[in-house]
Amino acid sequence: MKGILKKIAQINFGLMSPEDIRKMSVTKIVTPDTYDEDGYPIEAGLMDPRLGVIDPGLKCRSCGSKGGDCQGHFGHINIARPVIHVGFADTIHKILRSTCKECARVLLTDAEIIDYKDRIGNMVKNEESITNIIKEIYTVARRDKCPHCETEQEDIKIDKPVSIVEGNYKLTASEVRERLEKIPEEDHILLGVNSKVAKPEWMVLTVLPVPPVTVRPSITLETGERSEDDLTHKLVDILRINQRLKENMEAGAPQLIVEDLWELLQYHVTTYFDNEASGVPPARHRSGRPLKTLAQRLKGKEGRFRSNLSGKRVNFSARTVISPDPNISINEVGVPEMIAKEVTVPIYVTPWNIEEMKKFINNGPKVHPGANYVERPDGRKVRVYPETKDAIIEKLEPGFRVERHLIDGDIVLFNRQPSLHRMSMMAHEVRVLPHKTFRLNLCVCPPYNADFDGDEMNMHIFQTEESRAEAKSLMRVQEHILSPRFGGPIIGGIHDHISGAYLLTRESSVFEEDEVFQILMRAKIPLPKPKGESWSGKEIFSLLLPEDMNMVYRAEICRRCDECLKQECKNDAYVVIEDGNLKSGVIDDRAFGSFAGKILDSVVKEYGTDKAREFLDSATKLAISGIMKKGFTTSTDDEEIPQEAKERIEELLSKAEERVEILIEAYTNEELEALPGRSLEETLEMKIMQVLGEARDKSGELAEKYFDINKNHAVVMALTGARGSMLNLTQIAACVGQQSVRGGRIERGYSERTLPHFKKGELGAKARGFVHSSYKTGLDPLEFFFHAMGGREGLVDTAIRTAQSGYMQRRLVNALQDLSVRPDGTVRDNRGVIIQTMYGEDKVDPAKSDYGKVVDIDRVIDEIRIKSGK
Amino acid sequence: MKKDILKHRLVPEHTILSKSEIKKVMKELDIHPEQLPKIKQDDPICKAIEAKSGDVLKITRKSHTAGKFVTYRLVLN
Ligand SMILES: [Mg+2]
Ligand SMILES: [Zn+2]
Ligand SMILES: [Zn+2]
Ligand SMILES: [Zn+2]
Q1: Contact flag B35-A3 (C-beta cutoff 8 Å)
Q2: How many domains does chain B have?
Q3: R_g over Cα of chain B
Q4: Ligand 1 centroid vs A798 CA: distance in angstroms?
Q5: B29 to A834: CB separation less than 8 angstroms, yes or no
Q6: pLDDT digits (tens, 9 = 90+) for A78-89
Q7: pLDDT exceeds 50 at position A1
Q8: B64: nearest CA in chain A?
Q9: Fewest Cβ atoms closer than 10 Å to its Cβ: which of A97, A177, A487, A751?
């Protein structure tokens, strides 16, 4: 494809001149009234038909297009006396302050003018921002005396929002405009005004553009009463005062009255632009509600930008709390009936489905597999009511479109914010279920990063056949088992799936045949032929493995024995699968866990995603039924160690603390030798950290000796990778260890000490946040305080990290959103410009790769070795 | 002291393509030269190999994923 290169040459921002405003206007607006007694819009009124049409049946008098196609046309109001535009009041003030009251030149010396013009010229040429230099000019040009005509200058202040006061005299808008008019064009650039697109005097309005009716449509209430938009109300106010001002001026009314009216006109124009401008009471509706004028429409979270342009509300979507359901497939999502009856799927009526559609309509909007709307071929939509459904069924024929309820098997899009990667939005099949929460399989928690402590998720219903087909082939959960991040499974077993599989497949696990069949029935796995003898757990799990699967790997529980005994490993950590039979090793996190599952990974890559989904569904169900057969519980008893162990740990820790004291003594006696490249203090710190770290590790190892995986479920969870770690357990049972802030021992607090309980300069273990106690024995107050310090740092870090990575993600997404990989393997942007001549330089899709590589040679060799070795 | 940047290990090999080579590459990628990534004429590498505006450079560099990777850049001033 040859790209089309089109360039936007430039975008100009400037001010509209009074001529521009009049030129774009289709009519002058004079009457403050909108409609006459018969309800027709008044000519030259605020609803003048030339301003555009909304009613799709009418034609626009200005452009001839139908309502809906006509975007509307501006009108204008000639203002009797000039008024200051609030948005520019600050700029006007700055400009007046920087120019002479007499000759209107900028208050810079000739030399300064030449210098600044030179600098600005260069910056414009280099496309640099001139804001800073203009700011500088505004400060330099605040002179008491004009360098050109020697006139003494008076101080000009701004009285928010729009009053400009010189000395003690308040300048009228006309006087302000005159002064701005007098500024010579060659000085404009020095004041930050580009004379090609703006003149300073245009910041004082003499004519006001009137936005088209499409911008401020009136609404008709049920009572037939017309209700006008806030902008229209404001424009009515402006027109009224403008009228009165004009009349009074023509009648030669006293100056005081004219000035009062002028002030009032200024107020109305100001609040028309911004009803929250500081220093003016906001204009209110009769009910007392402040009016929403131009600035309010755009500003803030509820403004046009943040709520209508950057983000939009959509139809056919639903949101509710999520809860787990281990009995549905990973591909499914449980949808509450209440939601299924609200969001609909459009179905075209054909001769083949007309009877089915009639049934839906017959059920109506209130009975579950029903229908809410029927759309006729001419585009007219009728709601299905119990009273009208028979008539609708009567008329139904091919070509109609029925908006029927969500039913089992429909494809929907399911999403959890923050949508950070593509697995945050996946396509699920609907299962309509009772109750009020979305239900999801636990295996899809990792990609969504969901848990059930109150998380909510969104669901979107596809509205076209194409989107459904595309979603089914590209977005279905089973297509996302492998993550493009590391080319391994991100969807997989968690928590009890892992513990359960371990309990089921460990060596000591033997079941009578009737028990086996109970487990399999409960897991909804097809029953094998009875063999009339007891089964090992490994044999049960083998039922799920593909017949021809061969693989070898080390399980998560592998303790890295000094010499690996392979199949004879006493931990049973050496997994061997031969022709789909689990010969040795236990099933744990490394088998089918999320982020780690080797077997799952292999099933996806060798047997495809359908098989993988089947495997994962049945493996997790089997594990759950296994764990339920065995029983599984944990309590603080699991972190109990015998008295002798406690004593030995105590001894170990006090020895370490002694060694720290010895180190400190060596340091104070200046006997300590500095490590290369370190100061004496750093050396001491490092050595202390090392001693204490070792002490904690040793105490942990000591405690670990008493933790038996065969008797202790907390250890089962830690070692199989189901939940928690050995460190968690030893911190509970033996010793919590050093608390740290900013990667080192705790130093902050009082001068030269962490807390007033210590001596100044004390460097001992306890004084710098070493927690000697275990969580189970409990922390003393000082330890508790240090622990809170370390804990707080963790919380602050995560809060900051999410904010930073969120912003980084935003910038990345904006930079990369239009890039795509083309069929020829090139990466191009939306103009067809090449970014990479080959995607990733090797054309490999990481989600389809073997942990980032095209092929894992070692694995292939292992497989062949097993096959030939038997 | 002036270094020969062409000998630096982080500077990949740049060669200027002939007219016919450009034609061939453009046909291969099905693009016109403006759609290529750009490089400035005053880039040190362009000065070193005396590439002029309008030339197309063939860049052969080491790649973590593919071992060796070939890409092209259009010289602009
Ligand atoms: Mg949560
Ligand atoms: Zn129109
Ligand atoms: Zn002057
Ligand atoms: Zn071992």
Answers
A1: yes
A2: 1
A3: 13
A4: 15
A5: yes
A6: 998 999 999 999
A7: no
A8: A841
A9: A751
Q: Do B30 and A1 touch (CB under 8 A)?
A: yes
Is the CB of residue B65 less than 8 Å away from at least one CB of chain A? Answer: yes
Residue in A591, A581, A508, A603 with CA at minimum distance from that of residue A556: A591
**In chain A, what percentage of residues exceed pLDDT 90?**
60
Is A832's Cβ below 8 Å from some Cβ in B? yes
Q: What secondary structure letter does DSSP report for A417?
A: S
Residues in chain A with CB shorter than 8 Å from the CB of B31 are 2-3, 832, 834
CB atoms within 10 A of CB A830: 10
- Record: contact A824-B30, CB cut-off 8 A: yes
Domain containing B30: what range? 4-76
- DSSP characters for A145-208? B-TTT-PBPPPEEEETTTEEEETTEEEPHHHHHHHHHHS-HHHHGGGT--TTT--GGGGEEEEE
A828 touches chain B (CB under 8 A): yes
Give me the residue from A2, A841, A844 closest to B32, CB to CB: A2
Quick one: tokens of A870? 């038997």
Domains of chain A: 85-202 (no CATH), 317-480 (2.40.40.20), 508-586+603-630 (1.10.274.100), 636-790 (1.10.132.30), 820-862 (no CATH)
CA A493-A499-A504 angle, to 5 degrees, is 105
- Would you state the pLDDT for residue A3? 58
Residue B21, domain CATH? 3.90.940.20
Q: For residues B51 and A388, what is the distance between their CA atoms, to the nearest angstrom?
A: 78
pTM > 0.90: yes or no: no
B29 touches chain A (CB under 8 A): yes
Q: Is A4 on the interface with B (CB under 8 A)?
A: no
Whether residue A2 lies within 8 A of chain B, CB to CB, comes out as yes
Q: How far is A851 from chain B (nearest CA, A)?
A: 12
Nearest neighbour of B65 by CB, restricted to A832, A835, A844: A844
- ipTM value > 0.90: yes
Q: What does each C-alpha distance from B2 to A28, A664, B6, B49 come to in angstroms?
A: 73, 53, 12, 15
Chain B residues lying within 8 Å of A4, measured CB to CB:
none
Give the A:B interface size as CB pairs under 8 Å: 45
Give me the mean pLDDT over the A475-504 stretch.
Answer: 93
Edge-to-edge strand list for the sheet holding A156-159: A156-159, A163-166, A169-171
Query: Could you tell me which residue, A327 or A857, shows the higher pLDDT?
Result: A327
Across residues A834-863, what is the average pLDDT?
84
Alpha-carbon span A518 to A524, nearest angstrom: 10
**A578 Cα–ligand 4 center, Å:** 19
- Both ends of chain A: CA-CA distance in Å? 55
Portion of chain A with pLDDT greater than 70, in percent? 99
> Judging by beta carbons within 10 Å of its beta carbon (0-12, 13-18, 19+), is residue A718 exposed, middle or buried?
buried
Phi-psi region of A113 (alpha: psi -120 to 50; beta: other; left: phi over 0): alpha
Residues A416 and A426: their CA atoms lie apart, in Å, by 10
Residues 9-28 of chain B with CB under 8 A from chain A are none
